[in-house]
Specification:
heterodimer; A: 293 residues; mainly alpha; MetI-like fold; two-stranded antiparallel ribbon; 76% helix; globular; B: 342 residues; alpha+beta; Rossmann fold; OB fold (Dihydrolipoamide Acetyltransferase, E2P); 2 domains; six-stranded mixed beta sheet; five-stranded antiparallel beta sheet; 28% helix; 32% strand; elongated; transmembrane helix (chain A); membrane (chain A); cell membrane (chain A)
Chain lengths: 293, 342
């Protein structure tokens, strides 16, 4: 092949428009960055933040009681109803309780699992375990929830029946990978020499866990809990399938969009988990967990 | 005689099909500064880890002060380790790091604080108690790791390439400092290194490792002046071998012999040779001027090549560079040549 000499003079003589554009982008890092980011920023701005803004705006409107038509007047009535009605308070607290329970159960199961994957398994076994953890995510959410419905039904393998407990079990199963993976990643980054150093200085297993592993893995635990907590808080399908007559925030939103045809009230209810999550994120920001996501 | 601080008997370790350590017997005396020297993969770190208890031997025993500890966990052994990456706890202050071992052993608070501060003072880190490891330089972290281990007053201190991560200048400073700390505390230091100069300058005795075995154990002078095998001769310093027909022609003997470069004198062809000296003629093929000394590569007429190191006492680079391509005679005292076991 006849390669052209790679000198600056030769490069200048070969200036095609495409090369000129590349050179221009190379010199102007700002232009390059804005071109790359414009599409995702548009998506984030319009589809995501815009939708949230629309949700909040809708929460300040009201629906005509008879026709169900939207009346675009600003009113706090939806939020007043939400906070003064006993049943909504109960449902909100129940939803938070379910989310907390799911998060704790997942943590208890995920931590030993992640530790075994990151610190005990051979590199080969490690790869297989990661795949094993990820595999359930390839199956449809509905299929998995119905599988639990079958197992939990009074004729099923477990036969525990439906209700809040069944909901917590099902949600714990569904979100477990989201807890395992961040903790696994966090423990992977933890040098083995730190565990050896603790043992070398006289610490047994439990003490090493308490003083070295847990504090250093804590941000990863919080990262995992953000997933399990928020996914549980927003869920309404699992509870419909295995929850019996129990209701969570998601169901209230769903029922107000569907049967009640009261979109503004549904929007007001939907802001509740958003606010809870914002409070939660603000609280965990200090742990450094957000750098672990 | 009292029991040695460390005694290794028939120590072996295999990782699957890989035989990392293939039979090591060593006695390390109380209060000794002992180096395990060898290239990477020679098994020296594995031996250290078996003494610490992080690996359990495939066969053989580890004794500390006459007690068999082969089956004991790391936390049951009276040894402490300075890790190659220091392994400081990043979420604890320097003081908490140093106090960790004492806290585990339930040493009362006041005594704990006093001993930790004394340990930090002995490594010249007063005033750094509240810092986090992340806020320290490499050399300071190294000293925190040392203080964290020494504060427990172990029977043996294990150091895994303790100076490996430091730059040359700091490394030389720490070599001197480690040696004086060891003399002060009187604890047995057992350290692993691949740096022959570090091993020679710091230790009382050196064990040279190759392919999972100990090739030679001895004082630095013994290792350097009388290497037992070709591997030791080559790994510790420049090997400078004379063998085969060259040995026959120059020395009138069969076998493989070695002379250290600084023991060779570069002389003119006609210079007189003492009866106690041997000499060989050759052509200078390369001259490397290195400030205080010059290295001459000489192709021997009898075959083979020797490297001669000459102090630049009176000469400059101009003078020595002119010697390239000339015929010279290399002269050395007979007692500086030694036979090598192949």
């Amino acid at each position: 092949m006849n390669a052209a000499p790679n000198t600056p003079a030769a490069a200048l003589s070969r200036r095609t428009p495409r090369r000129r554009l590349s050179a221009f982008l190379h010199r102007h890092a700002g232009v390059r960055l804005s071109l790359l980011l414009s599409a995702p920023m548009l998506w984030l701005g319009i589809a995501y933040l815009g939708a949230l803004a629309a949700l909040f705006a809708a929460a300040l409107w009201r629906a005509d009681t008879f026709t169900g038509d939207l009346i675009r007047e600003v009113t706090w009535a939806n939020f007043q109803d939400l906070f003064t009605t006993e049943v909504y308070r109960t449902i909100a607290l129940r939803s938070v309780g379910v989310a907390v329970a799911v998060t704790l159960i997942d943590l208890v199961i995920a931590f030993p699992m992640a530790f075994a994957m990151a610190k005990l398994a051979s590199p080969r076994a490690q790869r297989w375990l990661v795949i094993a953890v990820l595999t359930p995510l390839w199956a449809s959410y509905l299929v998995k929830a119905y599988a639990w419905r079958v197992m939990l039904s009074s004729e099923g393998v477990l036969g525990w029946g439906y209700g809040l407990t069944a909901t917590i079990i099902t949600l714990s199963y569904l979100w477990l990978p989201y807890m395992i993976l961040p903790i696994y990643a966090g423990l992977e980054r933890l040098p083995n020499s730190l565990l050896e150093a603790a043992g070398d200085l006289g610490a047994r297993g439990w003490r090493t866990f308490r003083t070295v592993v847990w504090p250093l893995a804590f941000p990863a635990v919080v990262a995992g809990s953000i997933f399990t907590f928020s996914l549980s808080l927003g869920d309404y399908i699992a509870v419909k399938i295995v929850g019996g007559r129990s209701q969570l925030i998601g169901n209230v939103v769903y029922d107000n969009i569907g049967a009640a045809n009261n979109l503004p009230f549904a929007a007001a209810v939907a802001t509740v988990p958003v606010v809870i999550m914002l409070v939660y994120l603000a609280a965990v920001r200090r742990t450094g967990a957000l750098e672990n996501l | 005689m009292s029991d040695p601080a460390v005694r290794l008997s028939g120590l072996r370790k295999s990782f699957g099909a890989v035989h990392a350590v293939t039979g090591v017997d060593l006695d390390i005396a109380d209060g000794e500064f002992f180096a395990m020297l060898g290239p990477s993969g020679s098994g020296k770190t594995t031996v250290l880890r078996m003494i610490a208890g992080f690996e359990s031997p495939t066969s053989g025993t580890v004794e500390l002060g006459g007690v068999d500890v082969t089956r004991l966990a790391p936390f049951e052994r009276d040894v402490n380790t300075v890790f190659q990456d220091y392994a400081l706890f990043p979420h604890m202050s320097v003081l908490d790091n140093v106090e960790y071992g004492l806290r585990v052993k339930r040493v009362p608070r006041a005594e704990r604080r006093e001993r930790a501060l004394a340990a930090l003072a002995s490594v010249r880190l007063e005033g750094y108690e509240r810092r986090r490891p992340g806020q320290l330089s490499g050399g300071q972290r190294q000293r925190v790791a040392l203080a964290r281990a020494l504060v427990n007053r172990p029977r043996v201190l294990l150091l895994d390439e303790p100076l490996g991560a430091l730059d040359l200048k700091l490394r030389e400073e720490m070599q001197v400092e480690l040696k004086s700390i060891q003399r002060e505390v009187g604890i047995t230091f057992l350290f692993v290194t691949h740096d022959q100069e570090e091993a020679l300058t710091m230790s009382d005795r050196v064990a040279v490792f190759d392919r999972g075995r100990v090739e030679q154990v001895g004082t630095p002078a013994e290792i350097y002046e009388r290497p037992a095998t070709a591997f030791v001769a080559g790994f510790v310093g420049t090997s400078n071998l004379i063998s085969g027909s060259a040995a026959q022609a120059v020395l009138g003997r069969e076998g493989t012999f070695s002379v250290r470069p600084e023991k060779l004198r570069v002389a003119a062809l006609g210079d007189p040779v003492d009866g106690a000296e041997h000499s060989a003629t050759g052509t200078v093929s390369e001259v490397v001027y290195a400030g205080p000394a010059t290295r001459f590569v000489v192709e021997l007429d009898a075959g083979g090549r020797l490297i001669a190191l000459q102090q630049n006492l009176q000469v400059s680079s101009m003078d020595v560079m002119g010697l390239r391509g000339t015929k010279v005679r290399l002269v050395w005292h007979r007692r500086h040549e030694f036979a090598i076991v192949s």
